[in-house]
Amino acid sequence: MKKKIALICGISGQDGSLLANFLIKKRYKVIGTSRDAEACNFNNLEALGIKKNIKFLSMNYEDFHSSLKVLKASLPDEIYYLSGQSSVSLSFEQPSETLKSNVLGFLNLLEACRMINKKTRIYYAGSSECFGNTNKYAANEKTKFDPKSPYAVAKSSAFWLANNYRSSYNLHISTGICFNHESPFRNNRFVTKKIISTAVNIANGSKEKLILGDLNISRDWGWAEEYIKAMWLMLQQKKAEDFVIATGETNSLKNFVKEVFNQFNLDWKKYVVQDKKLFRPQDIIYSKADPKKALKKLNWKAKFKMNDIIKLMIKANNIK
Asked: Do the beta carbons of residue 240 and residue 173 sit within 8 Å?
């Protein structure tokens, strides 16, 4: 039986690496892209021991002809667009790059698919940031978007592009509106990884302080490996649809920090410093999710919640 071919755009990141590992186990032929496949850092793939099982192609996401060339060379059954500048805080400093990588890159890929193979199934990595503040209400697939950052604006634009191409050209495109999801493969610029890493250092005797911004924000934190399966499940459905992917449990950042330090029997208040410079120009205060549709149609439900995730990430740092 012929292997399915999956093209992962943004394979070097957390989700791309974990998805590649998941698909290889399902006997897919996996092709990954980056701007410069020869010079890109694939540390996550090496850590998973799967780099040798992947074919790499260079693709300039802002160049339509580059996207067209890659699609002709790979002829994928499934495409996972996980690429683009993914830091909310960095998007305020680099709004143009954030818009181009998340919107123009995805548009070029959609156009290439429209011209080459309309049967290719496409997944777009959406974001809960599009909802803005949910004001204690749980956001679902019908909740109105209210983006609060250039990153959220970019993700919202790409979401509507996906919907437009799905309805206009009958392309099989699904967007996973994913709430925060973590793993040891998170970059240190993400606050959860920063908290874990600093707490581990302090537990090992470091005198450093954990410097954070607003501790009153609340988020839904899930485990990335579970979210990867949801992405794949979307492309196995006969009908393309959008899904909120989340645990359904919301916690404050302050509570996250407290629970991390509790794992080491430390009082977090002695080690945490708030710095107003780290406050964003505009931020989401409260984010809550309603993932019932994913359970009903994908039979997907998150097993790991915040406390589980904290323990798993600490374990990955080899701290008992």
From this structure: yes
Look up the pTM and report it.
Answer: 0.94
Distance CA 133, CA 216 (A): 13
176, 230 Cβ separation under 8 angstroms = yes
Neighbours of 29 (CB within 10 A): 18
Catalytic residue positions? Answer: 127, 129, 151
Q: Inter-axis angle of helices 150-169 and 105-116, to 10 degrees?
A: 10
List CB contacts of 181: < 8 A, sequence separation 6 or more: 15, 221, 222, 223, 224, 226, 227, 245
User: Mind listing the pLDDT tens digit for each residue in 94-111?
Assistant: 999 999 989 999 999 999
Q: Please report the domains of the chain, with CATH numbers, ordered by start residue.
A: 5-181+222-245 (3.40.50.720), 187-219+250-289+304-316 (3.90.25.10)
Looking at the chain, the whole-number percentage of residues with pLDDT higher than 90 is 84
Question: Number of helices (H) and strands (E), helices first, in the chain?
Answer: 12, 13
Q: In this structure, are residues 19 and 48 in contact, taking their beta carbons and an 8 Å threshold? A: no
Spatial contact of 202 and 210, defined as CB atoms under 8 Å apart:
yes
